Amino acid sequence: MERIFGIDLGTTNSLIAYSDGGTPRVIPDPDTGSPLLPSVVAFPSATEIVVGARAKALAATQPLTTIASVKRFMGLGMEHVTAADRAHYAFATGDGIVRFRIHGRDYTPPEISALILTELKHRAAAGCGEEVHKVVITVPAYFNDSQRQATRDAGRLAGFEVLRLVNEPTAASLAYGLDKRNQGFIAVYDLGGGTFDISILKLHEGIFEVLATNGDTRLGGDDIDRRIAELLLAEVPADLRGDPTVVSQATAAAEAAKIRLTDAHATALELHNGSVHVVCQLTRGEFDALIADIVERTLIPCRQALKDAGLAATDLDEVVLVGGSTRVPLVRRRVEEIFGRRPHTELDPEEVVALGAAVQAGVLSGGHRDMLLLDVVPLSLGIETMGGVMERIIERNTTIPTTVKQVFTTFVDNQTAVDFHVLQGERELAKDNRSLARFKLRGIEPQPAGLPRIEVTFMIDANGILNVTARDERTGREQSIDVKPSYGLDDEQIERMLEESIDHAEEDVSARLLIEARNDAEALLRAARKALTGSTIGADERAGIDAAIARLEAAMHATDYNRIRDLTDELNQVTTPLAQRIMDESIKQALEQKRVEEIA
Amino acid sequence: MGSTPASAAQRSGAVWPAGEPLSCWQCGADRASNLFCPRCAAIQPIPDGADYFQVLGVPRRLLQDRDALHQRFYELHRQWHPDRYQTGPQGARSASLRNTAAVNRAYSTLRDPVGRGEYWLTLQGETLGAKNNRVPPELAELVFEVQEKLDELRAARGGKSAADLQREVAEVHAELLRGQAALLEQLDENFRRWDAGAAEPATLKRELKTTLSALAYLRRLIHDVEKELEA
Asked: Chain A residue closest to B84 (CA)?
């Protein structure tokens, strides 16, 4: 059977893994050996796209054409973009789904994420020689429906068949559960680059049952970095504080300092930018005080999740730490305090989610028959009723898949369409919850008000994604239904993007071939000119070479790479006798030299 | 798919709703009420009219053993979960999705005695009424006290006596929990009489409704108190 790959599409880093005869393995970068691919996409020019470590390096000098932490924007609308976000990114104008504006073109978060996924695809092809087609992608447990859909869209745009979205803490527990056949209650505390999740699970004979989950999809290591960066920026002249290049450099310095403070008790932060040179000292104690409120913010969801699971901290048998930000000493200390036990850290917190994704991929392809994952929906789902109140129809922490049926009818005679608005969240008022989509039941038979009965089925599948179907209760016929996602892409948009990306792929290839042809031609021209100046050569031969050079130089200004290649070959041919003579000459000289040395 | 053709319905001896003849979506064989086709072993969808007891394959009774229900929940997921059919044909995938969704709904309703009692009422053609705001008479005094304390607490928030009030509210919270426990005992007693096949279903139904109403009211109140205590 075709192999299924597991992907951790992280805020800071992304990884791809597979199950090798039951053992999950991360595929490292074939060149550097690093398992992590920085989730950064840079656009150095209108035709160039760079992903990973090289893109991350560009962030300092080209901040507005470099997109880091795109995961923070998945499934969001322009109205969710904050002032702080605008200091780091250039956005398009208008409302609807978030769009970055780069070299005059708009990119949605799923498109940027698709570029990261495509890079992972290449890595897997190079690393284990297999074409990646079917995948499992992990998402934060607290991701809402729009954020999950956006992730699945990114997978589709990268040409994958996304078989399953798995919650990151649950995936991590699978990786831990592999080697320890333990039973009991476990808490998974997952603090990544941009998101925080807490999940409480019951493990029993290979079944991983999630009892409750909670979190914050805009809280993570990025917030810690920004907090430290503010220290540096406070020392920078006021007029430069908003400069994207300065902000980007300060953030990079902050991240590096944070990492050093995991082991060191004090460190220095530096910022050089033109005439600006700032140095700051930061001790571990100061660092702890600086980020204490961020760490405290993670503890509120922890208490809520325990309560929802009907457990006390003392009921827990294990606590597992996931995510790079759990390396911060204060985080470890506070987690240990609130749960009253030392957390597990045996597996690399940055790799454990990808490993778990590979385990789940193995389960889907028929392996690990004894393991089974039962996950929950993280947020309540409801519909807006009269007066702007949200009526809950699926409660948070309900085990998925789950279905609820709801009957809709008409309010006026001969009404042929009914609209309803689906929301997700825990608040009472519709406006305080996140809008997922607006639905329209169409083609209802004209009848007196209240007579039509349309049964709508809300199904949340094993990915945590909502599927809505409707049928006429009387006729049993399927009822047509239109969906308008609030902050997502509809199928038509995805199709269009896929087509465009295929068109672009051809453009990209042409651009690369042209660049390569020009580079080769350039090198040959340089060599030929040099040869002509230092050698004795007949007038006919010189005229032939000059003509070939002129023709190639003219072609270089155009974009026909085939013609450049042909003319390069021609020049190569007419200069071969000359090159041969120069070669012979130098060999003779070398030999003569040698003879002189021998004599001496 | 495995060798687990003995369906939940067969094991519990439950009676499936009569209706159109059931044939396997894959091979067309008459599968009766089997949830795995006796000929080709393909997973079959649970019929629409199955009640929660039938879905879980447990006896149709009001008293249920929590652990046994949980065990059953796991067993059915091992057989039916979408992870097991992800790479299979569409018919198997949709049956698996439908069956596990039914199991989840049935389990989450039946594991909670209040949910189970309410569901039982709907099976008897009764409903509790969505808006159940009547104060249970036996709790009237306690409820009044709680409301008063909550109002005081809200007013005093940040003031000097807030800590004292907080303690008092915590005390009434404990009392509410005791009230809830007593009502749950009452509910169990009602369940026992139903299961024993008592001869006065009308009385039992009335009692069940009263107890469930009181419990629903208490749950909301406890929720409010807890929210205030955490604030």
From this structure: A364
ipTM (interface pTM):
0.84
* Residue A121 phi, psi dihedral angles, 5° rounding: -60, -45
User: Does B107 contact A at CB distance below 8 Å?
Assistant: yes
Asked if residue A364 lies in contact with residue B86, where contact means CB atoms within 8 angstroms, the answer is yes
Q: What angle do CA A163, B37, B34 make, to 5 degrees?
A: 110
Residue B74 has its nearest CB partner, among A164, A207, A373, at A207
The closest CB to that of A402, out of B74, B83, B101, belongs to B101
3-state helix, strand, coil in chain A (%, to 5): 45, 25, 30
A579 touches chain B (CB under 8 A): no
Q: Say if the Cβ atoms of B97 and A366 lie within 8 Å.
A: no
Question: For residue A584, with 0-12 CB atoms within 10 Å meaning exposed, 13-18 middle and 19 or more buried, which class applies?
Answer: exposed
Q: What are the chain A neighbours of B83 within 8 Å (beta carbons)?
A: 164, 360, 363-364, 372-373, 462
**Parallel, antiparallel or unpaired: strands A207-216 and A372-374:** parallel
Q: Kindly state which CATH superfamily the domain B8-111 is placed in.
A: DnaJ domain (1.10.287.110)
Residues of B in contact with A363 (CB under 8 A): 83
Q: Which residues of B touch A373 (CB under 8 A)?
A: 83
Q: Do A365 and B87 touch (CB under 8 A)?
A: yes
From the list A379, A363, A466, the residue with the least C-alpha distance to A136 is A363
- Give the residue numbers of A marked as catalytic: 8, 71, 168, 190
Q: Across the interface, do B86 and A372 touch by the CB < 8 Å criterion? A: no
Show me where the domains of chain B are located. 8-111, 137-230
Residue B87: list chain A partners with CB under 8 A: 1, 163, 364-366
A373 touches chain B (CB under 8 A): yes
B104 and A1 in contact by Cβ < 8 A?
A: no
The yes or no reply on domain B137-230 and CATH 3.40.1130 is: no
A positions 391-450 inside 8 Å of B (CB): 398-404
d(CA A103, CA B229): 54
Cβ-nearest to B74 among A204, A400, A462: A204
Global pTM value: 0.83
Give chain A's domains with CATH numbers. 4-221+289-374 (3.30.420.40), 381-489 (2.60.34.10), 493-599 (1.20.1270.10)
Q: For residues A189 and A195, give the distance between their C-alpha atoms in angstroms, rounded to a whole number.
A: 11
* 3 state SS of B59: coil
Contact A358, A365 (CB under 8 A): no
* Closest partner CB to B104 (pick from A204, A365, A399): A399
How many other C-beta atoms can be found within 10 angstroms of the C-beta atom of residue A178?
18
B81 contact residues in A (CB cutoff 8 A): 372, 374, 462
**What is chain A's pLDDT, residue by residue, as a tens digit (600 residues)?**
689 999 999 999 999 999 988 899 999 998 889 999 999 999 998 888 999 999 999 988 898 899 999 999 999 999 999 988 888 899 998 888 999 999 999 999 999 999 999 999 999 988 888 889 999 999 999 999 999 999 999 999 999 999 999 999 999 999 987 655 668 999 999 999 999 999 999 998 889 999 999 999 889 999 999 999 999 999 999 888 888 889 889 999 999 999 999 999 999 999 988 888 999 999 999 999 999 999 999 999 999 999 999 999 999 999 999 999 999 999 999 999 999 999 988 889 999 999 999 999 999 998 888 889 999 999 999 999 888 889 999 999 999 999 999 999 998 999 999 999 999 999 888 889 999 999 999 889 899 999 999 999 999 999 999 999 999 988 888 888 888 888 888 888 888 887 776 666 666 666 667 777 888 888 888 888 888 876 678 888 888 899 999 999 888 887 788 888 889 989 988 888 888 888 787 777 777 666 655 544
